[in-house]
Amino acid sequence: MVKYDEDMIREISDNVDILDYIGQSIELRQKGKDYFGECPLHTDETPSFSVTPDMNSFYCFSCGTGGGIIQFLVEYEKLSYDNAVLKASKLAQIDISSMCQSQTVKINKMIRKTKQKSEEFTHPIINKLEYEKHKKVPIQNWIDEGIPQDIMDLFGIRLDTRGNRIVYPVYDLDGNLINIKGRTLFDDYKKIGIAKYMNYFKVGVVDYFQGLNVTLEYVKEQKEIKIFESIKSTMKLMNWGIKNSASAEKHTLTKEQIKLLIKIGADVILCYDSDVSYKEKEVAKNINTLKRFLNVYVIEDKHGLLGGKESKNSPVDLSIEIWNQLYASRRKIT
């Protein structure tokens, strides 16, 4: 492959209207400043292919393919890189014969980077006997926090007596057991140098929500999903008869979790603990991505009903009355 001058490649790309060109083969609809359509590289139930005119670039939120016009010609029209440059130069009406060749490998690195895709991780399917060896006994700590035994049974909560951990299964949406997660019962876990939470098997890609295997039917029924930081919050809400929630197990989302939410297509209500700011960089980034596809709302404790940031309380930690107030005042992100 010829090594091209990087400045000339940039000039070619800048002089092709990528929205106009892609719009000839992919039906695009405007949403805000961007345009969206179905990605031809895979089954795309929810349009995830986007074109950003301001950046003269494209990106698929589902498969991760993106770049400028040359990358589009390589990935979607299956041209060799040399032929893609040739075609793009004709579209840009730039004489490629004047392009100076360079020994630099910078452009090659750039192209390799745009073509790199994260390796797919296949979760190992774990024998359920691995989980069933843990004891099904009352977890008094969580009962005291307002989670009755029948709700814990529904979510498969058990006790690892050897490790003194509350354990719960991690299922994918096909009902496969893909991990076991544990939470220590030692109050002084920091002093004795053990982790508060641990996964019993390799995590890989976090492309699931804890408890969603139980609550998905209610999410689809109500066309809304409430996202919490912990499985305890999902169980507390379930005890109050509110069944359309799940746990991200943290306050930021992976791109795989975002893809899953887009695929489900329900309104998203972020219900993070009182110490989390929705302006935090990664949280804001998640929200900005989600709002392109879905209605996104946030639960905020503006009046200190949860005891302020220092309390680190979940919106469901104190009472159903406080939860109802917070939910009623949820704010839509626009």
Describe the structure.
The chain has 3 domains: 6-115, Zinc finger, CHC2-typedomain (DNA Primase, Chain A, Alpha-Beta Complex), CATH 3.90.580; 120-205, DNA primase DNAg catalytic core, N-terminal domain; 206-334, Dna Topoisomerase Vi A Subunit, Chain: A, domain 2. It is built from 13 helices and 14 strands. It has helices at 6-14, 18-22, 69-76, 81-91, 106-115, 129-132, 140-144, 149-154, 212-222, 231-239, 255-264, 281-290, 320-328, and strands spanning 29-31, 34-37, 49-52, 57-60, 66-67, 158-160, 165-171, 177-184, 197-199, 224-228, 245-247, 267-270, 296-298, 331-332. It has a 5-stranded antiparallel β-sheet with strand order 1-2-3-4-5. The protein has a 5-stranded mixed β-sheet with strand order 11-10-12-13-14. Helix 3 crosses helix 4. The protein is elongated, with a radius of gyration of 24 Å.
Distance between the termini: 46 Å
Named CATH architecture of the largest domain: 3-Layer(aba) Sandwich
CATH class of the largest domain: Alpha Beta
Strand adjacency order, main sheet? 1-2-3-4-5
Report the average pLDDT across residues: 85
H/E element sequence: HHEEEEEHHHHHHEEEEHEHEHEHEHE
Sheet with the most strands?
Answer: 5 strands, antiparallel
Question: Which percent band covers the strand fraction?
Answer: 15-25%
Count helical runs: 13
Over all CA atoms, what is the radius of gyration?
24 Å
Number of strands: 14
Which structural class do you get from the secondary structure elements? alpha+beta
The shape is elongated
